[in-house]
Design a protein that fits this description.
The chain is mostly helical and 88 residues long. The chain has a domain at 59-88. It has helices at 6-9, 38-55, 61-74, 76-87. The longest helix is centred in the middle third of the chain and has 18 residues, at 38-55.
Length: 88
């Protein structure tokens, strides 16, 4: 019997390659810049660390902002609270 060659020699199973999935459309995105006071930036960073501890995952700042915006759009009570704070 001949010695194994190729992938079999390294204990690997050869498989046929499947074509890559077609790329999905990426939702249009817009870039915003937000200036925060140092205390607000520190509080945001602390909140991110807390979210990381709670989820066990790395938490992206942009992802958190997107989730907060989604909550603001969905929750009328939250929107009222934000309006009250802005009214001062």
């Amino acid at each position: 019997m001949a010695a194994p060659t190729g992938a079999a020699r390294f204990g690997q199973v050869a498989t046929t390659l499947r074509p890559a999935a077609a790329p999905t459309a990426v939702a249009a995105q817009r870039k915003y810049t937000v200036l925060l006071e140092a205390a607000s930036a520190d509080a945001f960073d602390e909140a991110l660390l807390d979210l990381r501890r709670r989820t066990g995952k790395r938490v992206d700042k942009s992802q958190v902002v997107r989730e907060l915006l989604a909550l603001l759009a969905e929750d009328t009570a939250l929107r009222k609270e934000v309006a009250d704070r802005l009214s001062g």
